[in-house]
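User: For a teaching handout, I'd like to show students what a predicted protein-ligand complex looks like in token form. I'll give you the sequence and the SMILES for magnesium ion. Please answer with just the structure.
Assistant: Understood, here is the input followed by the structure.
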Amino acid sequence: MTDQPVPLSAAPAGMRVTRPRLRRMALRAGLYAMLAGFAAFYLLPLFVMVTTSLKGLEEIQSGSLVALPREITFEAWSKAWSGTCTGIQCEGLRPFFWNSVAMAVPAVILSTLIGALNGYALSHWRFRGSNILFGAILFGCFLPFQVVLMPMARVLGLLGLAGSIPGLVLVHVVYGLGFTTLFFRNFYVTVPGELVRAAKIDGAGFFRIFASIFLPLSLPIVTVTVIWQFTNVWNDFLFGVSFSQAGSQPVTVALNNIVNSTTGVKEYNVDMAAAIIAGLPTLGVYVLAGKYFIRGLTAGAVKG
Amino acid sequence: MAPILEIRNLSKTFGETRILRDIHVAVDPGNFLVLVGPSGCGKSTLLNCIAGLEAPSGGHIRIGGRDMAGVNPKDRDIAMVFQSYALYPTMSVARNITFGMRVRGIDRAVQERKLAEVAEQLQIGHLLDRRPAQLSGGQRQRVAMGRALVRDPMLFLFDEPLSNLDAKLRVEMRTEIKRLHQQLGRTMVYVTHDQVEAMTLATHIMVMKDGAIQQLGTPAEIYRAPANIFVADFMGAPVMNLIPARLRRSGGEARLEIDRPGGTPIVFESTPLPGPLPDEVILGLRPEDITEAGRGGDGPSETVECRIDMVEPAGADTYVVSSLGGRPVTARLPPDTAAEPGAVLPLAFDLSRMSLFRPKTGERLN
Ligand SMILES: Nc1ncnc2c1ncn2[C@@H]1O[C@H](COP(=O)(O)OP(=O)(O)OP(=O)(O)O)[C@@H](O)[C@H]1O
Ligand SMILES: [Mg+2]
């Protein structure tokens, strides 16, 4: 390693390996072995899923679970995507995947935008009772899903949104607001109040200050919020199964139906392929923006 | 001439705490009022009330003769420079300066022209495309000034604009602000807790403490005739000597008497005291009013032999610390003085410039 201190003695470096150095190297090796072990432990299920999804059915029934596929076939993938049966319908995951997209994209955009506005108002336009309001919103983060099911069903019914994708969007926006508000408020309190004062004297109002000064600062926290919200909304099962009907089910519900309702032979390869397809978008979001996620969690708003 | 800024009976409370009380002041066109006082005394709060960023709890503010109750900051014809500069971090320097004009929807050509004017005036033309984070402290300061200057307002407000700069830059920018004031002839209100800044910039100084005005006057008045011990102690560097003294009365006349360590008390024989005075007073004398006897000082003065405790050369002057009435006393001597620690030196006290204070309340007596 380059950060090893250069020995000051006359002996040429590398010729003599001193005892403390030896011990350090042994520790290093042990550490890496342990990390590799953990990584393998966590990657094993993914490995099994991927290999199984690439095998044919006979091979699965005859071979070992962890063996590599003898012959790679993408049949299970195409069946999972567009052929397998979810209950009575046999169109694969595809329609439900697009349901999830139609639900998650607006839900993420709306909850992020409204959360940003909330956080901005709660941090820089304090009003009577704003702290109590923030406390109440925060409390919403800790409400278990199950508690809101019944009241939410009633509200959706009253609004005429029961069983529809817009209804699901509404549910996820409302439920996500607690978190998005919290994220943005905590980010915006680090913006100095003098900026807002200066802008007020410059003649800008509530929305102009938000759009011209706060939003351009917000990339790190927007990234965090989008990843958080997208992961939660996409992966949600309980709201999806409670508030959807045949045509509006999200991909998580469809996946459950595939796995649970196949009659006859269990098609493990199709199940695995379907599970991977259902999880792919969140994985993709994290791979694309994960770097900014870490950065956003630790960033202050205004540098210098 | 009607005053540009007029404040009557202003008060401000946050919840139960009184932050400002009984603020009365009028600032005439072209004047430079400095608000000075220790941290937390309410200077920023007062400035924010003038700007309309805080609503007063009582009293009136008029700007240009117009009552400001309920008037938005943007409609007050003011510009403000903040301590942290408050530059918009994601905008270039040019956009920082023109933001106000863009919000107001001012013609693009006019924006360009004014931007060029201000950039020229402040010599920041080469910085226009940079972001605030790419500027040094002094440059940020200039940009913040530029943003105020383009407004061309009736009243400029400054909240400790120089306090984040290092000493040398602070002196430079101070001169620059003074030059701008003379060039523009605009009315300015300036907050600082630096008394040198206050003395050098102000046409009028308002000294505040705990939300109340201690004294309002020209720098010379504040310096020569402080209204109380607080002002005397706060304004001037090194600080005014405040020496406990007694009155010795004989016949109809009174003389000042001061204790001296290990000696008989000093009596200032040849200086009769004015008016009725209490038996105990605090004598205030600036260091420059105590000099080496027999050198320069031609006015009437009293000479006292003093033991020197400390000699502090400061370049242009040498300060000599002795002790009287149980307090250190500083005298300002020429730099070539022969004074040495431990030696005894005759010092001339110019009592024609003295201030007398009542010990209990600190109020001025003469
Ligand atoms: N929003 C607020 N709520 C409650 N108290 C406040 C508020 N703003 C200021 N104060 C209090 O008012 C007092 C005066 O504050 P202000 O900022 O005006 O002081 P200052 O003279 O400008 O001090 P500094 O020199 O440190 O800037 C302080 O004691 C402060 O704690
Ligand atoms: Mg202040």
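For the handout, you might add this sentence: Chain B has eight helices and 21 strands.
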